[in-house]
Known about the structure:
By secondary structure, the chain is an alpha/beta fold. Helices cover 44% and strands 13% of the residues.
Amino acid sequence: MRYTINDIKEMKLKGQRISMLTAYDYPTSKLLDQAGIPIILVGDSLAQVVLGYESTVRVTMDEMLHHTRAVVRGTQHALIIGDMPFMSYQTDVSTAIRNAGRFLQEAGAQAVKLEGGERMADTVRNIVECGIPVMGHIGLTPQSVYQLGGYKVQGKTPKAAAQLLRDAVALQEAGAFSIVLEGVPTPLSRIITQKLAIPTIGIGAGVECDGQIQVLPDMVGMFTDFTPKHAKRYANLAEVYKEAAARFMQEVQERTFPTAKESFTMDESALAALAELAKSL
Ligand code: KIV
């Protein structure tokens, strides 16, 4: 059985902290599922940390669906959220509904996430009315990076903070089951979290949120192009990979790999017959 959005909302009521991680492929999502992570986001961070694009703006619906399918196949228990990519929901409500539906129907996700507050509330309401659970995302919204002028903490002035509070309330009223707060000062996250009945999930938003999300390749040291301030490194997989590749290369050079253990033998009589044939050729 998978976690449902009701389980997630109940976790806030019970004061249980919510852990959420991103994943983009079958083997990784399987490990996270086995570790008991209740929510996996197939984030549009896929663009940078897996596909090597400059920003999330470049990733497409087809790419997102492809990776979401793999994550769904790798999991049995986690709630899988598909991240709606840039331009898949901003132009008009019917396009947004159709694309949200594709994550559930074509990829097997159980919910979608989209960026934006008050101005996206109507879109969220319409998607939810179609039976598609929506997670909101406010604060530093990477799809607007060119409008924001960089990856900057949001809500630092009284006016901007008040707008973020209004954004959060508008999303809750529109039916979002949870909201990601990204790049938000801790005191503001605390106020938003206390104000809302639905859980807040923070990234660079302090410890007062109901839960936390991290981008997995940042967290395990797999993506090394840059490390955001909000990322904590729990492992150094880049070094593990590089060391394994270097050892492999050395053993190939020295002919100490493969050994008999990784090789295959054949029947003695077949071998003798083959030797005879080789002589006659
Ligand atoms: O795409 C992503 O990984 C995200 C998280 C940073 C919340 O949106």
